[in-house]
Amino acid sequence: MELGQNAVRLASAKEKTELDSNAIYLGNLNTVEADLKLPLKGKYGSSIQWESKETLFISHTGKVTRPTFGVGNRKVVLVATLTYEGEETRKTFEATVLQEEYKAKIVAVNPLTVRTNVGEQPELPTVVIVKNDTGSYTVSPVSWDPVKEEAYRQPGFFSIHGTVEGSPLKALVTIQVVDKAQETGDHVKRLQEFQGQKVSLESKSEFGAAMHRFLQFVRSMDDDQMLYNFRAAATGDTKGAQPMTGWDAPECNLKGHTTGHYLSSLALAYNATGDSVLLGKIQYMVTELGKCQTALSEQAGYGQGFLSAYSEEQFNLLEQYTTYPDIWAPYYTLHKIMAGLLDCYELADQSEALDICDKLGHWLHNRLSRLPREQLHKMWSLYIAGEFGGMNEVLAKLYAITGNEHYLMTAKYFDNEKLFLPMKENIDTLGNMHANQHIPQVIGALKLFEVAGDKAYFNIAENFWTMVTQSHSYSIGGTGETEMFREPDAIAGFLTDKTAETCASYNMLKLTKELFQFNPRKTYMDYYEKALYNHILASENSRKAEGGSTYFMPLAPGSIKKFDTHENTCCHGTGLENHFKYQEAIYFHDEDRLYVNLYIPSRLDWSEQGLSLVQNRDRDGLETVHFYIEGGPETTLMFRIPDWVSGPVQVKINGEPCRDLEYEHGYLKLRKVWKKDEIELMLPCSLRLVGVSDDHTLKSLAYGPYVLAAISGEQDYLSWSYSEQELLEQVIQQKDNPLTFILDVVEFVPLYLIQDERYHVYFKLAR
C-alpha cells in the first residue's frame, strides 16, 4: 500500500522496512529463465541485501543459470534483508528456475502441401514439422528455395526444397495451384447459448454460492485503483487512489491486464444478475478509460487511438525482438483491455466501450500492417515477450460487430505458424510449449472460422482440443506443469505443486463451449463438466469472499492450495471472471431442441419457445435430478448422459416410468408438448478409479462428476496394496454426508471442498 508523504514521514523505521518488503516486485517467479533484477533500495528508503540459498542456479545478484536438461526444474529460495536506521525485516521468495531445453537432433522432416490460387505467389510456412531423436515432434525454422513465377501461372503441382535450421536434412513442400485455394465450411453455429438472465443459478448450490462470494468481492473493488495505472500514463492525476500491486504494480511491465479482466468480470456479473451497482461501475470505468484514451492521443509520440497503462515503448521494443523481462507481453495486456471493453459493449450495452475498442483497432491495424510477415512470426515466437493472448479472437469479434475488413486482416496477422501448422497437420508438437500462451490463440482461430469460414481454422481448434484433453490433461481436467505443456501422455512425472494453471482451464472451457456449439458432441461436455467441477470450482476460497484464486492447482502428494488475493497474477484476473460463467453451458438450444448439459441447480426462461424449466437436486445428491417444466409447443429435450453414469438411466414423467427410451449421440431424447410436467432423471453413480497412461500404479478416485482428494499431510504418495476392485470395495460412503468417503481411516472428499488442508489427488496401488 502506498502512503502519503506525511504518513511516510511519521512511519517508524521498522514500519518502513515492512512497507518496503511488501513493495518488492520480482516478476513471475513461477517460470524463471532470465536474470532477475533484485532491487538494492526500497521505495521508502530501506537498504536491501539479497541471499540466494542455491547460488548454483541464482546468484546473490540475481544472475540465473538454468539447470541442464534432464536435471529438472529447480526451486530456489531468495531472502531479502531490509534495513533502515538499525531496524530489520526479512522477506522470503521462492523461484522456480526452468531447466534448459533439450538440444534435440532432427531425424526426419515432415513434407508439406500448400495450396495457392492461379497467378498468386504461394505463402510458404516459415517453419516445418520435424521429428527429434527423442521420438517427439516439434517445429524448426526453414528457408525455402526461390519460387519461379511461371510455376504458379496455371493449375497443377510443383515442389520446392528448403533448408532446415540446425539440420542437414532438407524440407519439401508441394504446392498445388488451383482456381480457388481456400476451403470454406459451414460456419454457422448449430446451437445457441442463452443470453443474460435467461439462466440463473440456484443460490444455495455450490455454484450459486461461489458466484455470490465473487459478486460481493467485485462490488467492493475500488474502481479508481483499477484506473490508477491508466491515469498515471495518460494524465498523471490518479485521483488519490492507491496503486495496484503485484503484476499490476506501477513498476511492472504487465500493468493494465487486471483492469481488463475487471471490465469483463463486471460485464459478466451484470449480465448474470442485472445488478444496478455493477452497471454504474461499468459506466464509470468505461467513461474514465475513454478520457485516458483521449489524453494519450493528444500527447506527442502516441498513435491515435492508443490506450494502455503504459507508453508505446514496449510495443516498439517488441518489434526489435526485445526479450522478457525487459518487456512483458504488451499485446497480451492489450487483449485483456480490448476483451473487457467488448464484454462491456456486448453484455452491458455500453456503446462508448465499442468506440474505445474501435479506435484501438485502428491503432493496431496501422501499426501491424506496416510490418513484414516474417517479422510478425518472429515477434510471436518470443517466449512471454511475444505472448498476445487472444488478440486474433478480439479482432475477429470486432470485425463481426463493425464489418471493418481491416480488423479481419489484422486478426490474421496473429496467425502463429509455430502452433497452427502442426495443429493443421494434426501432429502433436505441444511438448514444452507454454500452455496458456497458446490456448487463446486457438480460440482465436475458431473465431476466425466463425466470422470468415476458412475450414483450416476449425481443424486447428478441433485437433488441438483433442490433443490437450486426451494426452495432456490431469484427472481434474487441468493441463500444464510450471505453465508448460509436457510431452503427450507424460502425467506421472509431472505431479508437482505447479500443475494445472487455472488460466489454462479458463481458456480450455471457453474453447470447449465454442466447439460444442458448432458440433454438439457429448465428449465436449464430458470434459467441460470435469474441468468446471474439479478445477474452476476448486480454485476459489469458499470460506472468504476475498477474490482469491489458485494460480496452480497442486497435484503433488500432500499439496496445499494457495489463493492469490493481492498479486494480481493472470489467474487472479481470470479468477475474477470464472465464477460468473457457471450458467453458460448448462443449456443450449436450436429451433426446437433444448440441450441439458450440466446437472447444476438452475432456472431457465426460454421465452421465445414459451417454455420455462427449473432444475433441482439435493446439495450432495447426484443420482436423482428433478426438472419442472411449464408451457411451450412440442419440444425435444436432450439430456446428456455423463461418462460417469454406472448403470441404466431411469426416467419418470409426472411419476410414471418411461420405457423404450430413445438416445442420440450420448443424449437421452424426450419429445412432447410440455404443459406443466415433472421429469425425474435417475443417473446411477458409483466410485471409479481414473488412471494415467504412463504409470499404471497411479490412480485418482472419482464419484460422479467429482474427483476426490484424500486429506493427508503425508509428503509421499499414499499407497494401498489392493487390486482396483478390492480398493473400491473397501471404500465406505458416509451416510450423513454422501460426498465423504473413508478408506482405511483416510478421508476422501471432492477437491472443491478442500481449502487449507493438505491433500492427495493421486495415490498408488501396489497391485
Automatic annotation (TrEMBL):
Domain Non-reducing end beta-L-arabinofuranosidase-like GH127 middle: 594-684
Span of domain Bacterial Ig-like: 110-166
All residue ranges annotated as the Non-reducing end beta-L-arabinofuranosidase-like GH127 catalytic domain in the record: 203-584
Signal peptide segment: none
Protein name: Uncharacterized protein
Residue ranges constituting the Atrophied bacterial Ig domain according to the UniProt record: 18-99
GO terms, biological process: carbohydrate metabolic process
